[in-house]
Amino acid sequence: MRRFRIPLVLLVLALASVAAGCGSEESAPTTPAATGGTVATNPCAKDQLPLVNGGKLTIGTDNPAYPPWFGGTPQGEWKISDPASGKGFESAVAYAVAEKLGFTKDEVEWTVVPFNNSFKPGPKDFDFDINQISYTPKRAQVVDFSDSYYDVNQSVVALKDSKIANATTLADLKDAKLGAPVGTTSYDYITQNIQPSQQPQVYDTLDAGVAALKAKQIDGLVVDLPTAFYVTAVQVPGGKIVGQFPTVGSQEYFGMVLQKDSPLTECVDEGLAELKDSGELAQIQQTWLSDKVSAPVLQ
Amino acid sequence: MEGDRRSKILGGMSNDARSVVIALVSTIVFFTALVLVITNSPGWPEVKSAFFNPTVFKDSFPEVLRAFWLNIKIFCVAEVFILVLALLIAVIRSLPGPVFFPLRALAIVYTDFFRGIPTILLIFILGFGVPALGLSGIPTSAVVWATVALIIIYSAYVAEVYRAGIESVHPSQDAAARSLGLTRGQSLRYVVVPQAVRRVIPPLLNDFIGLQKDTALVALIGPVEAFRQAQIDTSATFNFTPYVAAALIFVSFTIPLARLTDYLNERSRRRRLAAGIAA
Fold this sequence. Notes:
heterodimer, A: 299 residues, alpha/beta, D-Maltodextrin-Binding Protein, domain 2, 2 domains, five-stranded mixed sheet, three-stranded parallel sheet, 7 helices, B: 279 residues, mainly alpha, MetI-like fold
């Protein structure tokens, strides 16, 4: 009989630990479900919104927060910029939407959400995430996207003495070694529309891509146009925007990411629609991205 | 009643057979319970579609497999250089006599330093730093420099494995060789090193399993290998299944290597025991 003891003890221990792990997850409930009973209230009223942190609107973005999307002097854990400054395009848009939802500046909290975390399964730790994430139908099967807050074009940055510095067509980029940050539609544009002869390189962060460009490991770095202006203005003084890419298929746009089927999505979209109608969104874009509109279009 | 009959059946078996049956039942019960707990958890459907989505798997597996070819190439090239460089370092470190002190010190500094430095850092320094120097004649390829970084780091580890092997050869072997008229170098070449290498083959393979996984770090400076391809597919679909595909490919490469290591370990243990009895 003694032989039974060890496996049984192990089994019980293993089961207990599994059960404990399971229990602790249950004790962290998701956002409160819609309050029963109240029927005629506005679902977008501030006190009806299902928030991850009651009373506060929690907005996520990745760290570092890059210009021109975010501005201000970095505070606390934030690097390069401070999302809570209200400066920079995405910060300004986020606060404008928050205001439409009825939140003052003090009632907005920012949280670091690495790109992968914005679509991990399970409950989210943000109400919405604003991080230059492009809408695609496949992605929208997993999370909710708000409507567009910025229609985006991709572009290519190169050193001034690069062999593609004077390219005027997409075909001119065919033999170039191109790179893009991982997880971006910039990479998709390279593989689907440029289809270069050399395998494109992929980087974890914008900074790594810029380092590779400076080290001449790639001829061109493909990023969205506003980011390209930041790269050439700040990070690569010897660089230039070769040109922006023509839209292929439907217009690409950035949307805010929310929990799949979140009741908040509709409210954010309403806020965005109001901002568009009043011209406020165009105003914000003028303020933060104004000088970032003109670059030759590669044919 | 039920328990009685079972123990009677088990009682009728040999000890070995009984162990097998108990192990089998215990394993089945354990994993059934585990699977039941997981699949009945409230978030399981969501987790299942995020990590085990058949459509996404089918789309990304061939792409990840194609990218894995780069991992294999890096692994094979690095492996050859590591075996040679590490042996050189280990031999230098084992050189006796005060004359060789500077060389020994260099070897010690090398192994200490490169075992301590994070692989990621060295890949960044070599991959982005060296090409940016703009020296002519130096390759700028990210794959080349990442491979060099892996060779440098792993040589430090493997040199220590070799050294353990060299030190495990009894000094009397060297003394006997020298008394037969072999020079110090000849004794090392024909007597000590061959015995040492044979003894350390299992731990060597262990390090190569580690190397095989670390080839994924090459992606940090741009090249698209299996892990990076999975990441690309994941961000295109917002689904983590491509990582599972990458894991399966890595594991299917690692497991045969691990089994071989175990087999060689067992064989060398048997041989040593047999040798002990014969002596």
